[in-house]
Each structure stands twice: as structure tokens, then as C-alpha cells.
Predict the 3D structure of the following.
Amino acid sequence: MNKKPFSSTWFTINEDRSPYVVLHANPSYWDKKRGPKLQSIVFRNDLTKDEALYLCLNTEGEVDLVTNVQPEHARFVHSSPYAKLIHIGGNRVLAGTFNRYQDDVNFNDRNLRLALNLAINRTQIVNDGFYGYADLVPALTPPWAFDFPEELIPTGQNSQLARQLLQEAQWPEGRVLRIATPKSFENVARIIASQMTISLQIKVEVNVILPEEELKWKRVLAEKKLIPNWDIFLANPYALFYEGTPAYFHREFLGIDGAFRAGPTLPEFDELFEDMASETDQQLLLEKAKNVDRFVFNEALALFLCAPHDLYAVNRHVKFKPYRTTFELIDTEVTELHWSRNSFL
């Protein structure tokens, strides 16, 4: 038994990197149709994200590919003479976890959770918060997953019903709703806050967590020793496979060992999740995974938002194929016009 339960999670305390990492192709790779098609790849760790993007968009021969381009920077890539934008439905789902530990408001009340879901306009969040580079999701399973329940549709905005449910949930008069978000989703959080303020006619505050403080906040949430001072926390866990996705998304938000669970364990959820996790028949696994998402949707157990796309800035002469769940370069190649094939550069 590991006495340090979070010693092997995604917490990173320190990270020492060399300025450059060079990968050389394996010419004996078995799948010749895929590649490798490049002799070597150089990863640069000596640049910030902004520096890397600037060099990719404005120079030739410095940076050929930049990952994790922010949606608000997409227009700069489109206008660059040196680079093009490539995007794909990403392996993350953005949602809000409810703080069910609060004692002055009851986030264990489905009416309250449903009211908050009915108060927002998800299409506007995708268009204004992600500049269109995101997919709507009914609950926590993204639409590209094999276990996506196709009969579910994203909850639409219904301000009148949202206010009625908020009243039935006995929201205290004058109580401020507090949303905490990493810096990267500040714009999205402020859109959500504006929508809720108008729909629910309550005051909503946004607490932006700076990058240097994110680890501390996530640790408090994961350890569950202290009650967080927020009501909704925006988080975006990721998946590594196309099936069994509740193991990545639903478990993180609601499971026994979920790092983003903010409240007591949920026996009915745990029963459905364990039934899925122990299934070895693939078809049954998909059906049971769908049942997990249906339950979470019907109970409105999170503030469902969207699945953001992965955006890449890529040199105009590089042929890059993105994947949803991994970052691979085996079938990436360059054209005859690429700088590496021109000796005068």
C-alpha cells in the first residue's frame, strides 16, 4: 500500500530540462508505410510559449511546430506567411466541479446543480470563449469517444426555469456565487459569470488562479483535507483512449480517487463506475460507460461545458497529422520547399 497516495499523480514539483532534446529516426521501424519520414527532430526547451509562437509565425528555420496554441492566438497563425493552423478535437473536457462540501448552500441538491447548468449558453461559450475551437458536450463524454451516448444533447439555456430551480434549492438571498479558474480559462469563466448573473440574477465572482499557484490549489482539492473557498472550480482532465472514457473524465470529477471531486463520495456513481471498470467484454464496456455518462447527465453532477480543440501552429512546408489522444510525429514529413532542404538558409 502506497502511504503517499498522490506521489504518482500528475503533480509535478520540479522539472529540470535540457535546452534541447534531439530524437533520431529508427530506420528499422516495422511500419514502413507510416514512417519515419524525418531523419531527426529537435525539441526546444529554451523558449517560452510566446517566443516559440513568435518564431514559428515570423521566421523560417527556427521553430516548425508549436503545440497548445491558445484559441485567441489562432487569428495570428492564420495571418502568418510562414505558418498554418491545424486543429483537432482534443482529448480534454472542460467542466466545473461543484463544491458539495459547502455548508451554507447545498450543492448536493440536484435542483441547484441543474439551475446552474440551465443558466449558461454553451454555444456562446464555444464561440466567444474558444473562438469556435471546441465541441459542445451534453455531459462529460466527448463526442469523438466510442462510448459517447448519442441520444444525449447539450442542455440549453432556460433562465426562467433556472431561477425557479434556484429558488426551490433555497439559495440564500445576497449569497455570492464564487467561480475559481486557472488563468488559461479566465475568459471562459468571465463569460459564464456574466451569463449566470443575468440568468439567475445573483452576484457571481471569478477568482483567477495564477500559474505559480495552480499546484497549491489542485493539491488542496486532491487531498480533501480542507474545504475550498470556491463553489465551482473549472478543470480539464484528459483521456488517453477512445473508449472507457469515464475512467479519465468522470472518475476525476466524481470518483473515489478523483483528484477533482469536491464532496462526499457518491455510492450510486461508484456502483456504476465499478461495474464498467470490471467489464472485459468491449461491447458491454461501451454500454456501461454510456450508462455512467447518462447518470452524470441526469443528475447534473458537474457544470458541463465543452471539449476544447488542440491547436497547432505548423510551418507551411510541414505535413503534420494530429491525433486526439497522443502527440506523434512518425508520419510527419516536410516538402521540398522546407528550409532544411535549402542549403542557402
